[in-house]
Amino acid sequence: MARLPRLTVPGYPHHIIQRGNNRQPIFVGSADYELLLAMLDEYARKNQVAVHGYVLMSNHFHLLATPETAEGIPQMMQAVGRRYVRHFNLRHGRTGTLWEGRYRSTLIQAERHLLACMAYMDLNPVRAGMVAEAAEYPWSSHAHSIGRRSDRLVAPHPLYWALGNTPFAREQAYAELVRAGIGAEQQRALTDSALRGWALGEPDYVADLQRRTERRVSRSQAGRPVKK
Asked: Most buried residue, 126, 162, 190, 219, by most Cβ within 10 Å?
């Protein structure tokens, strides 16, 4: 069966996962983390992609981002992926591939899943046993979202702004949301949808998406895609 093209629609939030080949580390030291963040910031701006949240783990990373154009995310990820591998291989005296194939991504319904996806990413290091609390991990956007540092890469989504009328109120509300955690079912849904490429949302949302693209957006749909 032919591999489905990635689903990319301007103006909608996308959950993106890029993994290291054979689960090997893609970061060796802090300089590597800092380099990837700098590249993401550069190419997100160049390609008109708003990054709402991120987490860089030892062998993979997640992004939550909204592109202004259909080519924004593919062009950003291609540029970052190629340039980072060149620098990483040169710095660490290695050759060959670093990534486990192409990045995975899908669209998520903002009203139902965006804040949960942010929390899911922030809690990745906690679930992995790397830290006791999300705020202890330095390589995610969590510290920015709770007001502990300013991160120029992060462009807060309107749903984050709606958490409170003041920066302090928003930061406190988001911190509480992360402390409360998300359920195992929603964790699985967020992971599976990104890895498999199926849109995550209610039926009306999925149907609206399908009208905007010829690419099939959910597993349940059969037959030929709907024409635009």
From this structure: 190
Give kind and range of the element (H or E) at residue 17. Answer: strand 14-19
Give the tens place of pLDDT for each residue, 152-204.
999 999 999 999 999 999 999 999 999 999 999 999 999 999 998 899 999 99
3-state secondary structure 132-191: CCHHHCCCECHHHHCCCCCCCCECCCHHHHCCCCCHHHHHHHHHHHHHHCCCHHHHHHHH
Q: Are 139 and 131 in contact (CB under 8 A)?
A: no
Residue 7 pLDDT grade (very low, low, confident, very high; cuts 50, 70, 90): confident
Whole-model pTM? 0.92
Tell me which residue of 47, 40, 42, 48 sits closest to 18, measured CA to CA. Answer: 40
42-82 pLDDT, tens digit per residue, is 999 999 999 999 999 999 999 999 999 999 999 999 999 99
Residue (of 118, 180, 129) closest to 155 by Cα position: 118
**Structural contact between residues 19 and 191, judged by C-beta atoms closer than 8 angstroms:** no
Would you mind telling me the total number of residues written for the chain in this entry?
A: 228
Which two three-digit tokens encode residue 108? Answer: 């998520």
Taking the domains of the chain in order of start, what are their residue ranges?
14-203
- The gap from C-alpha 62 to its chain's centroid, in whole angstroms, comes to 4
- Domain with residues 14-203, CATH architecture: 2-Layer Sandwich (3.30)
Q: Is the dihedral of CA 12, 168, 127, 40 positive or negative?
A: positive
Per DSSP, 102 falls in state: S
How is residue 215 written in tokens? 């690419």
